[in-house]
Amino acid sequence: MNSVILRIYMSQSDTYKGKSSHDVVVEYLKDAGIAGATVVHGIEGYGTHHEIHTANVLSLGVDLPVIVEVIDDEEKIRNVVPELRKMLPDALMTLQDIEIVSNNKNLT
């Protein structure tokens, strides 16, 4: 079975139906039976609007980058992507083949 990693790039301030987008995504993925998801909080970055967001103490901005990383078999990930695209129409999503070399739950 082919495993993949889905990365979803968004901002900390992104919301969906009044809740934090990354929280909603993690809840959706868990309910969909996806093996695992991790939210990574960035310290600096910029996206399509070319505005730099940083955790620098001198910066007043608090809209930091957030990445949700999702790992499971390709079919399961591809099945959730259409709904994620509806929830996050402006988010960048990437999909990459991976080889799992160590895992205590044996996904493959």
Explain this structure.
This protein is of the alpha+beta class. 23% of the residues lie in helices and 36% in strands. It contains two helices and eight strands, in the order βββαββββαβ.
Task: Note the main attributes of this structure.
alpha+beta; about 35% strand; about 25% helix; about 110 residues; two-stranded antiparallel ribbon
What is the C-level CATH assignment? Alpha Beta
Distance between the ends: 6 Å
Question: Order of strands in the sheet with the most strands?
Answer: 4-7-1-8
Biggest β-sheet strands, sense, barrel: 4 strands, antiparallel
Oligomer: single chain
Overall CATH architecture? 2-Layer Sandwich
**SSE run:** EEEHEEEEHE
Mean pLDDT: 87
Q: Please state the overall shape, judged from the principal axes of the Cα atoms.
A: globular
Percent range for β-strand residues? 35-45%
Range of helix content:
10-25%
The total number of structural domains is: 1
Q: Count of DSSP helices? A: 2
Cα Rg: 15 Å
Name the structural class.
alpha+beta
Count all strands and give the number.
8
Question: What is the CATH topology assignment?
Answer: Alpha-Beta Plaits
The poorly predicted ranges are none
